[in-house]
TrEMBL record:
Protein name as annotated: Chromosome partition protein Smc
Family: Belongs to the SMC family.
Quaternary data: Homodimer.
Domain remark from Swiss-Prot or TrEMBL: Contains large globular domains required for ATP hydrolysis at each terminus and a third globular domain forming a flexible hinge near the middle of the molecule. These domains are separated by coiled-coil structures.
Entire protein: shown range: 1 to 180 of 1183
Subcellular location: Cytoplasm
Binding site for ATP: P32, N33, G34, S35, G36, K37, S38, N39
Lineage: superkingdom: Bacteria
Organism: Kribbibacterium absianum
Free-text function comment from the UniProt entry: Required for chromosome condensation and partitioning.
Gene: smc
Amino acid sequence: MYLKSLTLKGFKSFAARTHMVFDPGLSVVVGPNGSGKSNVSDAILWVLGEQSAKQLRGQAMEDVIFSGSSARGPAGLAEVTLVLDNSDGTLPVDFEEVGVTRRMYRSGESEYLINGAPARLMDVQDILHDSGLGKETHSIISQGKLDAVLQAKPEQRRELIEEAAGISKHRRRKERAARK
Ligand code: ATP
Ligand code: MG
């Protein structure tokens, strides 16, 4: 599984529809300070269901909607679509490509789509669960998190490595089984 494309419209500094295509392997986003690099990773977090404005470096969730510039009025909604290549069947669905869309209006109303069909946040989370892409899987490491890793105690660092290596979910299952 890999990130195939990301489309932003009205999300943070991306007022106009912006479509980014990624190849398998390593991709690097470069640009001057303030050009929107972190907004790209915020968009990935957001479309995957992030509920905390603070994690998205904002005060309120509405801060993800393009607020306007001298050249352009504010957007009425933010929309992000992320497409994952699932030809290796990592995700438990019968689709070669899985597109997840999140929209949010100024009214605060939010909606999710999976391959264009209306879905619940729970459906999105269910599909991503165990793929290493869901919440709390360290698939996105913010600048502040990096400091936390460097300053962590050895035991905490071990937990992070186990989580990243996908070992901790097996340990959680083992612990759950042992309790029964
Ligand atoms: P750095 O190299 O400093 O980390 P960066 O490329 O990561 O910079 P970002 O933090 O992604 O930059 O982008 C910051 C820019 O996004 C700021 O200019 C900010 O005004 C703009 N921005 C954030 N939210 C919105 C919004 N809702 N509407 C319009 N612009 C926004
Ligand atoms: Mg940044």
